[in-house]
UniProtKB/TrEMBL annotation:
InterPro entries noted in UniProt: Ribosomal_eL37/eL43 (IPR011331), Ribosomal_eL43 (IPR002674), Ribosomal_protein_eL43 (IPR050522), Ribosomal_zn-bd (IPR011332)
GO molecular function, one term: structural constituent of ribosome
Protein's GO biological process: translation
Pfam families documented for this protein: Ribosomal_L37ae
Keywords: Ribonucleoprotein, Ribosomal protein
Protein name (Swiss-Prot/TrEMBL): 50S ribosomal protein L37Ae
Lineage: Eukaryota, Metazoa, Porifera, Demospongiae, Heteroscleromorpha
Family statement drawn from the similarity comment of this UniProt entry: Belongs to the eukaryotic ribosomal protein eL43 family.
Domain of life, source organism: Eukaryota
GO CC field: ribonucleoprotein complex; ribosome
Length: 69
């Protein structure tokens, strides 16, 4: 079974609990999403709570790290 890529830059600092929480949010934020309007895979976060499709310019407000439609 393949493991997730480890996050670089944190090293052994900040404690294991915070590093696990950070990595969970990081991978959740960077995953590929599908636009609910046009169906393209160019849907991403432009700012905190604002999600936009780069193909059809569809904008929607969601949560900070994930979108719930």
């Amino acid at each position: 079974m393949a493991k997730r890529k480890s996050l670089r830059g944190l090293g052994a600092r900040y404690g294991i609990k915070l590093r696990k929480q950070y990595s969970k949010i990081h991978f959740q934020l960077k995953q590929e999403r599908v636009c609910p309007e046009c169906g393209s895979k160019k849907f991403g976060r432009t700012a905190v709570g604002i999600w936009e499709c780069r193909r059809c310019n569809f904008k929607v407000a969601g949560t900070a790290y994930d979108i719930k439609i």
